[in-house]
Design a protein that fits this description.
With about 260 residues, the chain is mainly β. The protein has one helix spanning about 240-255, and strands spanning about 1-10, 15-25, 25-30, 40-45, 55-65, 70-75, 80, 90-95, 100-110, 115-125, 130-140, 155-160, 165-175, 190-200, 210-215, 215-225, 230-235. It has 1 helix and 17 strands. A hairpin with a 4-residue loop joins strand 16 (about 215-225) and strand 17 (about 230-235).
């Protein structure tokens, strides 16, 4: 199954609106909700099939016109089922942000099941005075069933371009068949890797405020050349990751 979702947002009389939507099942978008105020529109992204089966692909195209502010929430985690036919499941996300546009994509969770294969590519084109916020959590599999890094392969790619300048080119690729995942320099003894990308040249924070280290949970903050920050987690404590992500999101929104 090939899902497709095209979303166009704009601003009308100081109110962010959904101007156009096209969807092809199993993808669909909710109606826009004004959770905070009329200038910030929240939309939930729905996937009715329950997950990606070998060879399935989902494609998202999101365009924000000048001054619009959008928050996108995937309704559920991306579950990737076994790839017994050898074909990987895939996801492609294309985002275009005009002047003073702001997009927050909250918690893209990827759960690759045993024997699955997954490829994801996200590309963002933005202006210098636009804003981008992205959350992602990669699971080792269905760990409660003993599926810890038993997938065939899992790779994600994030590209962020600002007026033809590449700001972010981040590729995470796990292939248990050719590499030792739980090895020093890869995942070590950790099960989860999570990331928050914040591209906002006006935001100023103290990176030490979020840097933390313990036996089963580590967080590091990297400043991105005065245009934003990367917060990356290595952890065995999934609820703690989610709680700290929510705390960081609230802090960024308050600023």
């Amino acid at each position: 199954m090939d899902g497709k979702l095209d979303l166009l947002f704009g601003k009308r009389k100081n109110k962010t609106i959904m101007k156009d939507v096209y969807y092809q099942p199993p993808l669909k978008a909710s109606r826009g909700l004004y959770v905070k105020n009329a200038s910030d529109l929240t939309v939930y992204l729905m996937e009715s099939s329950g997950g990606l089966v070998a060879g399935d692909s989902n494609e998202y195209n999101v365009q924000l016109e000048e001054g619009s502010t959008i928050t996108l929430h995937p309704q559920a985690a991306t579950k990737v089922y076994p790839s017994f036919n050898g074909r990987p499941s895939s996801q492609k996300v294309s985002i275009e942000l005009a002047d003073r546009a702001s997009l927050s994509w909250k918690t893209e969770e990827v759960i690759p099941f045993a024997n699955s294969s997954f490829q994801s590519h996200t590309k963002v084109d933005m202006k210098r005075n636009s804003r981008f916020y992205w959350e992602e959590i990669l699971y080792p599999g269905r760990e409660k069933r003993g599926e810890s890094f038993t997938f065939e392969s899992c790779q994600t790619m994030l590209e962020v371009w600002m007026e033809e300048q590449c700001l972010v080119y981040d590729r995470i690729h796990f292939d248990p068949n050719i590499q030792s995942i739980q090895h020093q320099g890869v995942m070590g003894n950790f099960q989860y890797v999570a990331s928050i990308w914040i591209i906002d040249h006006q935001l100023k924070i103290d990176p030490e405020h979020w840097n933390q280290s313990s036996a089963d949970h580590q967080v590091s903050v990297t400043s991105l050349r005065d245009i934003g920050y990367l917060v990356r987690f290595l952890s065995n404590d999934l609820p703690r990751i989610k709680n700290e992500m929510a705390s960081i999101s609230q802090y960024v929104e308050s600023k």
